Amino acid sequence: MEVDVPTAANSMEVDAAAPAKPNFRPLTAHEMSSGEVQFRKISVPPHRYTPLKKAWMDIYTPVYDQMKIDIRMNLKGRKVELKTRRDTPEVSNLQRCADFVHAFMLGFDVCDAVALLRLDELYIESFEIKDVKTLRGEHLSRAIGRLSGKGGKTKFAIENSTKTRIVIADTKIHILGSFANIKIARDSLCSLILGSPAGKVYSKLRAVSARLAERF
């Protein structure tokens, strides 16, 4: 009984006969949404109206030129409106731009908030002091003072150790960073709210920074 053993010549003939793989171009956001325009609206708080006017071009340029998303300010409704274009490369660009504008409204600087457009896995977490501990009057004022420190020293130390950005707006706290780093920063802020001295929080942050440095 004879068995045909495939030779190099036979395999070359098979490869030549196989059809070529199709090469499809990536779909644009306009095509993926069946030609429908998608919108996002972000409300502008009264206290962020003036900063928005000053930083408008810094916000407009990356959104319109780089992310290919139309952006305008609705003066009557006091909202920033975003919508996709025909040449928008990805559907996710619209949500990224909405997160970027929302971060600015929360109080983050444009240079910090723009990281939401450039990097994946960045988030914003918000909570209030009363979510950690119910404080009133002078106790609340002292807690806010502990979070910032003299001249913002404590806040900057937490930001630099955890590679995050923190905004303390009255009793609300907003943290921008990766999931793991937000958790470390939140734990440090909660310890300060509960009354831990800044020195104890600093020592914990030094240990965390050393672990992060070893990991990376």
From TrEMBL:
The keyword Membrane does not apply. Residues 121-194 form the K Homology domain. It is found in: Nucleus, Nucleolus. Its main location: nucleus. SUPFAM superfamilies: Eukaryotic type KH-domain (KH-domain type I). GO terms for cellular component: nucleolus. Keywords: Nucleus, RNA-binding. One of its GO terms (molecular function) is RNA binding. InterPro entries: KH-I_PNO1_first (IPR055212), KH_dom (IPR004087), KH_dom_type_1_sf (IPR036612), KH_PNO1_2nd (IPR055211). Belongs to the PNO1 family. This is OLC1v1011663C1.
